[in-house]
Amino acid sequence: MVEAPVCHNDNPRAATLANRVKFAGVIFFLTVTHTTSVALPPADVLERAKRFFAERVPQAAAYVEQEGPQFVVLRGQGGEEVVIRAWADGGATTRVRASTLFFDQALDRFFSTLPLESGVEVA
């Protein structure tokens, strides 16, 4: 094992690289999911998301990594990911669900640019 300085939690034993990775996993292990309804077609929502994350989030831009008719996966410059899915929910309503570990504030800003038909649920 590789020895490292003592952890910040004042644990007297030397922290190993494996312990640091284990600790980091605890901090970043839950994704945050945002869900809402909007008054736009699904394709328009996805197109707006691609433009928004490429142009309006300069400190943490994200670009298309994968896409399909109902989803887009955007990858940030540090490897961060945001996944957005938009699908028709019956009539003229489109449901949108997005999940991320890093882009929570940017997702909130993105949703504020859409014509929402319901509040944004965060789980």
Strand-and-helix sequence, N→C?
Answer: EEHEHEEEEHE
Secondary-structure arrangement, i.e. CATH architecture of the largest domain:
2-Layer Sandwich
Intertermini distance: 38 Å
Taken together, the total number of domains comes to 2
**What is the CATH H-level superfamily of the largest domain?**
Kinase associated domain 1, KA1
**What amount of the residues lies in strands?**
25-35%
CATH topology type of the largest domain: TATA-Binding Protein
Strand order of the largest sheet: 4-5-6-7-3-8
Low-confidence segments, ≥5 residues, pLDDT <50? 4-15, 17-27
Explain how this protein is built.
The chain folds into two domains: 1-30, no CATH class; 32-122, TATA-Binding Protein. 28% of the residues lie in helices and 35% in strands. The protein is built from three helices and eight strands. The chain has helices at 17-27, 42-55, 104-112, and strands at residues 3-6, 14-16, 32-38, 62-67, 71-76, 81-88, 94-100, 121-122. Strands 4-5-6-7-3-8 form a six-stranded antiparallel sheet, with helices on one face. It has a two-stranded antiparallel sheet with strand order 1-2. A hairpin with a 5-residue loop joins strand 6 (81-88) and strand 7. The longest helix has 14 residues, at 42-55. The relative contact order is 0.21.
